[in-house]
Amino acid sequence: MKLLEYEAKDIFVEYGIPTSTGYVIEDVDNLKAILYKIGLPVILKAQVLVGGRGKAGGIKMAKTEDEAVQKARDILGMEIKGLPVKKLLVCTPSEIQKELYVGFVVDRNKKKMALLASTEGGIDIEQVAEKSPEKIIKEYIDPIIGIQDYQCRSVAKKLGFDGNNMLSLASIIYKLGKIMEDKDAELIEINPLAITPKGFEALDAKLVIDDNSLYRHKEFELDLKESQEFTEIEKVAKEAGLAYVELDGDVGIIGCGAGLVMASLDVINHYGGKPANFLDIGGGANADNMKKALEIITMKSGLKAIFINIFGGITKCDEIANGILEFKPTVPVYVRMMGTNEEKAREILNSAGYELYQSMQEAAKAAVKR
Amino acid sequence: MSILVDEKTKVVVQGATGHQGQFHTTRMKGYGTNIVGGVTPGKGGQMMGDIPIFDSVEEADADASIIFVPARFVKSSALEAISLGLSPVVCITEHVPVKDAMFLMDYARQYDVDIVGPNTPGLISPGKALAGILPPHIFERGEVGLVSRSGTLTYEIIDELTKNGLGQSTALGIGGDPVIGMDFLSTLERFEADKETKAIVMIGEIGGNAEELAAEYIRDNITKPVVSYIAGKTAPPGKRMGHAGAVISGKSGTAESKIAALNAVGVQVATMPHEVPKLIKDVL
Predict the structure, then answer these.
(1) I need a surface site. Which of A9, A93, A266, B11 has the fewest CB within 10 A?
(2) Which of residues 183-202 of B touch A (CB under 8 A)?
(3) What is the CATH number of the domain that holds B214?
(4) CB B245 to CB A360 under 8 A?
(5) CA-to-CA distance for A138 and A117, rounded, in angstroms?
(6) Which pLDDT belongs to residue A81?
(7) What does CATH list as the number for A21-91?
(8) pLDDT digit string, tens, across residues A324-369
(9) CB–CB of A242/B237 below 8 Å?
């Protein structure tokens, strides 16, 4: 679950990380009251869950009230990478002397949390990693012991700081690591962490919470209706407990197991088709699940064919067949099923005029060449 | 030979009396796995068919464990098995928080225990033992070792192998999560050392760089032929494709990068799953 900048910044403040906060508005009418409180100039920042907001025109500085109102109206009316901007963060600009990067990630290979820091802040850290990897300082955190102060001091020192500056930077790094641990984050970033005449200040905030840990973090209750992370169809699928990803093609796809569904997409693509979605119905699905899955993928307009690919282990093929018939699809359906109760499924489907393919490539080819 | 489990391995099932646990425990025993008991705290002393249920892992006198408990109890259950030195500990459970997974992997390293998973279908040494939820009837004993990040895609490819007369020494699902125990490297190392295994199939998918690391490892350490398939060539960046670990972030984790790395060290990568048997026949 990704948090918006201002939501992450609220947590930074709670942990005592010096942060450029401000006020969030959804309506330009509320801007003047804020300008009265914090004065001019202001920075207006679109609150959307995509990178590259600045380049897309989602971050603007305004020096006068009229300019602020005009720019706020522009940003609140725009879409950034397909996401409408509904919220705007209004804050006072800081006097930036230098920009650093500090973040924590899950290192899949080391199976540990890694602390990353760099003097090259303010730009995409992946670019730094690619062009000048020597400029990234890395420190691994022991998963059982947790983050320790000395590790943060060592990183602050390696970034070139000493004395009180080293100590205050180390304290920020430590607090950031604590948020990562306490909140079950899979990613946390301050980019940039600015050096200003008043000291360090987090100008931006990125925080991604591990979805699998949400049961023990009631503070992050996902408001699906408000969420920008998912498309409308993805929200319906999420409510139904199905893993669905909307894509831009016209062949709807349902399969069991993430790997097999990914392979199904690839095979459709191989024969020249374009997948409209990824949908994993999971293991042990029954007729109702299948019907629901069909309802979800057909919410997308312009579907020309549906490819269903089931390798039935704990999934019973006859249940799937019944689900298809109950739904009564209006788009041609190409079904490949193997495994438990395959023969029963064949009878059910054949009697309704559907063919049952035995190999995924044959069914995929048929779905594309229809 | 085979890797990790065989007909002698004494296996305990943690969470054996739940809905999934019961079904799979019975099936594993039916396949010939040496199931010595199940563990469900509070139900010690009961029998599930001919399988005794214990309150703790310690009472079961086992060599290895399989975990079916709900995600929020996995950390504690796995710690119980690890602290007794059981190995492997196979964690079938999905949706385990990544913080718990990191904790467990570190703890297991200290006890020299192999963890398989979490979010894995487990493993099978055909004709000897089934330690997981893989459908046993599609497997045949033979010389191909298979390691995979996916469950159903494994079944798909196993089915093709078996139909083409290519049996398996051991097939292992390492799991679809970002942080897992046994990975491509440690599994490849076991297959290299296993006398029964003559060729290796490695099934990867988008996300992370495990396949790229495996390519380097194969170049430096593996003498047996390796054939691969990588799922997710059409996956868009930033979207999780079902598995928690299957997500392309920025430029890293793409299928192209993985296929290129494997091809560069001489590993043939099948374009489609059904082409794997042919590639294996070419190298055997």
Answers:
(1) A93
(2) 183
(3) 3.40.50.261
(4) no
(5) 7
(6) 85
(7) 3.30.1490.20
(8) 999 999 999 999 998 888 899 999 999 999 999 989 999 999 999 8
(9) no
- For B273, the closest chain A residue by CA position comes to A263
Instruction: Note if A101 is an active site residue.
Output: yes
pLDDT exceeds cutoff 80 at A318: yes
Helix ranges restricted to H, chain B: 19-31, 71-83, 98-111, 152-163, 184-193, 210-221, 255-264, 276-283
Provide the CATH topology of domain A98-220: D-amino Acid Aminotransferase; Chain A, domain 1 (3.30.470)
Q: What is the pLDDT of residues A135-167, one digit of tens each?
A: 999 999 999 999 999 999 999 999 999 999 999
- How many residues appear in chain B? 284
CB contact under 8 A, A245 and B233: no
CB atoms closer than 10 angstroms to residue A330: 8
Q: Are residues B88 and B159 in the same domain?
A: no
Q: Are residues B70 and B102 in the same domain?
A: yes
For the stretch A333-336, contacts whose Cβ atoms lie closer than 8 Å and that sit 24 or more positions apart, written own/partner, are A333/A305, A333/A306, A333/A308, A334/A305, A334/A306, A334/A307, A334/A308, A334/A363, A334/A364, A334/A366, A334/A367, A334/A370, A335/A308, A335/A310, A335/A363, A336/A307, A336/A308, A336/A309, A336/A310, A336/A360, A336/A362, A336/A363, A336/A364
For B105, name the nearest residue in chain A, comparing CA atoms only.
A111
Under DSSP, is residue A163 helix (H, G, I), strand (E, B) or coil?
helix
Q: Cα–Cα distance between B214 and B206 in angstroms, integer? A: 14
Q: How far apart are CA A314 and CA A262, in angstroms?
A: 20
Q: What is the CATH number of the domain that holds B29?
A: 3.40.50.720
Residue A332 is which amino acid? P
* B168 shares a domain with B97: no
> Are B188 and B251 members of one domain?
yes
Interval B81-101 mean pLDDT: 97
A232-369 is a CATH 3.40.50.261 domain:
yes
Q: What is the ipTM of this complex?
A: 0.91
If one counts the domains in chain B, the total is 2
DSSP three-state, residue B140: coil
User: Encoding tokens for residue B191?
Assistant: 């297959």
Place of tokens 């042990």: A284
Helix (H, G, I), strand (E, B) or coil at B173: strand
